[in-house]
Design goal:
The chain has about 110 residues and is mostly helical. It has a domain of about 70 residues. The longest helix has 18 residues. The chain starts with 12 loop residues before the first helix and ends in a 26-residue tail after the last helix.
Amino acid sequence: MAQDMPATPRRTAEERAMKQTEMLVRDLGIRDSLTRDTIYRVHLRYTRSREKVTTRSEAIECMNRLLAELKGILTKSQYERLQAIPLRHGARAPHAGRDTVSQTATPPAP
């Protein structure tokens, strides 16, 4: 049955960056348009670089760079709230107090 379903069109880097930005702005209650635009540009750069990644370790490095950049943009309380938000797409959230994504994290069983 799943084989009969049409493939969903893949989002562009711009669309994915916009969606990520919208979720982050909503989850953290960001109202400043300059901050919002900066976060979008960071997400866009991350999304484009993520398309070139071929290994899990490269993907984790890319995510850690994104988090480091966001840490410089967000206030301390916003960044702490970001750390408390579970990662999407079934990945586990980083351990409390850590600023990096664990390389040993495994996705949950289907």
